[in-house]
Amino acid sequence: MEFRSRAELEVMDYIALLWEQFYVAEAMLDLEKRITELKGDISVASAQLQEAKRRRNTIVFPFEDASRRENPILKGLRQNLFQKYEDVKNLENALAAIQEYSDLVNSFT
Asked: What start-end ranges are recorded for coiled-coil regions in this protein (predicted)?
């Protein structure tokens, strides 16, 4: 059985805490990068939706009640955009939780 001095244990604890902070910071950077990517995707999807809305009067459907049916292209674009907004919201919540945890860890150092 190996015995360690109190100073050695404190140094080991401090090193472990630094590594934990490093991994938390790395996770936060990854989340921020993904949020930025998703916001770019939202911009593209929003532009696609606006373009499809602009052109929707030129799309002809092969059924009689076309005026009452929702345009499937617009519906798909709208669902895609909504999903990206939800993804960003979820990632921002995860980032906030990691930030709270990081702040808590930093308060002990």
From this structure: 28-94
Tell me: the pLDDT tens digits for 53-91?
A: 777 655 555 554 555 566 777 788 888 888 888 888 888
Q: Is residue 39 part of a domain?
A: yes
The verdict on residue 11 lying in a domain is: no
Q: Are 96 and 35 in contact (CB under 8 A)?
A: no
Instruction: Please say whether the beta carbons of 39 and 85 come within 8 A.
Output: no
Q: How many domains does the chain have?
A: 1
Q: Per-residue pLDDT tens for 4-36?
A: 788 888 888 888 888 888 888 888 888 888 888
- 76, part of any domain: yes
Q: Encoding tokens for residue 71?
A: 């345009």
DSSP secondary structure code for residue 56 in this structure: G
Query: Can you tell me the distance from the alpha carbon of 81 to that of 83, in angstroms, rounded to the nearest whole number?
Result: 5
CA–CA separation, 107 and 81 (whole Å): 39
Q: Are 56 and 71 in contact (CB under 8 A)?
A: yes
